[in-house]
């Protein structure tokens, strides 16, 4: 499998603040990847780097195993389709915008009608093809921008917060459009979102950004502190982690890897904390518990486990997890 | 007061009777200013677009220089060019002194910083998403500039009209370099200065009114270009 992107020793510094710090990361081609993180986590900066509209302060990026030294060659630029958080459409119709993209990408003009029609159909925009870009609604505008980005058949589609400020109907339309593009052979889709369930719903993999650092673990049970050898001190708890990174400042613990019990367990698990239940929430076929052990932990269990343990709010419980369930970054 | 009103009536009569002397001056003035504006625009618009779209060492210095040049008195430009074009000057053998070309060069130099600065403002005031969008769609340096000009064309046109307005109202350099030669380098402003000093107040007033009409038309064009979009 080829890699769409390889990032090496990337640092982005804005006004003396390091907003992105990625020692090494690989994005394989043919995947639909959700880039998760809160506002200000560095998602847009990373998207700009992947789109090559911003240069890192330090480090290098490879696109399909080719190191990009200064600028993308036209043939490399053609491999990337970009849709920004608030897409900008130039004055003119939807078709005019798609035609401009094809022209800028030096596509043969005889292919314009076919490619424009294909892009409009894929995004269900055929009826709006002659409508002025200025009169489109938020959802239509995003779909038009995606149509413009995929018209020249790129290998990678980058979407920065495609679902923000949209109603459910438009979100569903966009989701199916993104999925239909991603289902094509060897197409890579990377989209950023701060909505974790949405990212998990349509992506093959998720990447999490937190304070400019990347991790593949879901960002539940996120704690900040300092790592000393294998002990991570949150300020309230010492959590044992299996592996450590120099200068790591955050850990995340997979909520499905945490075991709840009434009594302390005798096991190989290195982390065991006593606390009480402060929240019980049923979500689809799972139950989400919040346990307060000085720090608050999110734990996901099955409804059967909940009834077996007959847990109620305020109950005293023990939670245990392996040090390998702790992701340090 | 009677003197002023009588002069005004005489001036209006001169305008309405299409006095050839007046209209020859207007034609000279307009043609010199148009050519100067065209030359300045050809240089200032690409320079302004380049400066607005790129970051480079010395950009802030150039911006300060442009701001300074915008405020430079026209007689200073006249003086410098007089030194260059006069018979003993380094470019004296070109024989440009007291020709329309000398006035055109002076006016083009005068309005270049105005047009360039306003072009920079026009491009900078475009939507900040325009440049990254065009780059992400594969625009080269050249096609980026062309598309930015296309999007900001009305503001850039306004920059050119502002430059033309400044050129047609200029008097110092036109007087020093053109020499106010009738039918050759006599522009509206130099003629007003001359006719008034000769006591031909109504002639000066007629030219002044025509200059005002031109200024009004230019301002009308500018406000039409800047009209709020529905």
Entry summary:
By secondary structure, chain A is α+β, with helices and mostly antiparallel strands.
Please give a handful of descriptors for the protein shown:
heterodimer; A: 329 residues; alpha+beta; Rossmann fold; OB fold (Dihydrolipoamide Acetyltransferase, E2P); 2 domains; six-stranded mixed β-sheet; five-stranded antiparallel β-sheet; 21 strands; 23% helix; globular; B: 230 residues; mainly alpha; MetI-like fold
Outline the structure in words.
- The complex is a heterodimer of chains A (329) and B (230).
- Chain A is of the alpha+beta class.
- Chain A folds into 2 domains: 3-215, P-loop containing nucleotide triphosphate hydrolases (Rossmann fold, 3-Layer(aba) Sandwich), CATH 3.40.50; 223-324, Beta Barrel (OB fold (Dihydrolipoamide Acetyltransferase, E2P)).
- Chain A contains 8 helices and 21 strands.
- Chain A has helices at residues 43-51, 74-77, 94-104, 112-122, 138-150, 168-182, 196-202, 303-309, and strands at residues 3-14, 17-28, 32-36, 58-63, 66-67, 80-83, 156-160, 188-193, 205-210, 213-215, 223-224, 226-228, 231-233, 238-240, 250-253, 259-261, 271-283, 286-293, 295-301, 316-321, 326-328.
- In chain A, the strands form 5 sheets. Chain A has a 6-stranded mixed sheet with strand order 6-7-8-3-9-10, sandwiched between helices. In chain A, strands 16-20-17-18-19 form a 5-stranded antiparallel sheet.
- In chain A, strand 12 (226-228) and strand 13 form a beta hairpin.
- The longest helix of chain A is centred in the middle third of the chain and has 15 residues, at 168-182.
- The radius of gyration of chain A is 23 Å and the shape is globular.
- In chain A, 37% of the residues are buried.
- Chain B has 230 residues and is mainly α.
- Chain B has one domain: Orthogonal Bundle (MetI-like fold), CATH 1.10.3720.10.
- In chain B, helix 4 runs parallel beside helix 9 (172-178) and helix 5 (100-124) runs antiparallel to helix 9 (172-178).
- The N and C termini of chain B lie far apart (47 Å).
């Amino acid at each position: 499998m080829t890699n769409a992107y390889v990032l090496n020793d990337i640092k982005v510094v804005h006004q003396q603040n390091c907003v992105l710090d990625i020692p090494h990361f690989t994005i394989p081609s043919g995947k639909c990847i959700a880039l998760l993180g809160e506002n200000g986590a560095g998602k847009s900066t990373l998207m700009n780097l992947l789109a090559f509209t911003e240069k890192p302060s330090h480090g290098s990026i490879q696109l399909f195993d080719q190191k990009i030294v200064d600028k993308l060659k036209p043939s490399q630029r053609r491999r990337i389709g970009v849709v920004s958080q608030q897409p900008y459409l130039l004055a003119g119709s939807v078709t005019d915008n798609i035609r401009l993209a094809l022209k800028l990408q030096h596509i043969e003009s005889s292919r314009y009608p076919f490619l424009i029609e294909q892009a409009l159909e894929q995004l269900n925009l055929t009826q709006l093809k002659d409508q002025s870009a200025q009169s489109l609604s938020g959802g239509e505008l995003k779909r038009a921008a995606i149509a413009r980005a995929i018209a020249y058949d790129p290998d990678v589609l980058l979407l920065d917060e495609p679902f923000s400020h949209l109603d459910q109907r438009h979100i569903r339309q966009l989701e199916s459009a993104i999925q239909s593009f991603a289902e094509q052979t060897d197409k890579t889709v990377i989209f950023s979102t701060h909505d974790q369930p949405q990212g998990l719903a349509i992506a093959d993999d998720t990447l999490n950004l937190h304070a400019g650092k990347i991790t593949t673990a879901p960002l539940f049970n996120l704690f900040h502190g300092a790592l000393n050898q294998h002990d991570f001190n949150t300020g309230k708890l010492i959590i044992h982690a299996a592996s450590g990174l120099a200068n790591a400042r955050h850990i995340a613990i997979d909520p499905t890897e945490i075991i709840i019990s009434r009594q302390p367990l005798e096991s190989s698990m290195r982390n065991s904390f006593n606390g009480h239940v402060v929240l019980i929430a049923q979500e689809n076929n799972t139950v989400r518990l919040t346990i307060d052990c000085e720090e608050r932990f999110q734990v996901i269990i099955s409804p059967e486990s909940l009834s077996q343990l007959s847990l109620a709010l305020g109950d005293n419980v023990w939670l245990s997890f392996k040090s390998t369930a702790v992701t340090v970054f | 007061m009677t003197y002023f009103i009588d002069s005004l009536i005489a001036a209006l009569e001169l305008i309405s009777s299409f006095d050839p002397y007046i209209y020859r001056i207007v034609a000279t003035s307009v043609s010199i200013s148009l050519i100067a504006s065209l030359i300045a625009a050809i240089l200032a618009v690409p320079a302004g677009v380049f400066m607005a779209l790129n970051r480079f060492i010395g950009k802030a210095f150039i911006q300060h220089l442009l701001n300074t040049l915008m405020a430079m008195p026209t007689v200073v430009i006249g003086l410098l060019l007089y030194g260059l074009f006069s018979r003993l000057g380094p470019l004296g053998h070109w024989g440009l002194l007291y020709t329309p070309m000398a006035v055109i060069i002076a006016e083009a130099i005068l309005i270049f910083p105005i047009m360039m600065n306003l072009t920079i403002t026009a491009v900078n005031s475009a939507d900040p998403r325009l440049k990254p969008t065009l780059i992400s769609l594969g625009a080269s340096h050249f096609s980026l500039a062309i598309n930015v000009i296309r999007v900001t064309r009305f503001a850039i046109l306004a920059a050119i009209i502002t430059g033309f307005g400044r050129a047609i109202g200029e008097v110092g350099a036109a007087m020093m370099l053109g020499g106010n030669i009738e039918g050759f380098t006599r522009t509206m402003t130099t003629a007003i200065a001359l006719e008034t000093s000769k006591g031909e107040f109504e002639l000066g007033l007629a030219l002044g009114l025509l200059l005002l009409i031109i200024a009004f038309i230019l301002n009308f064009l500018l406000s039409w270009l800047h009209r709020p979009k529905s």
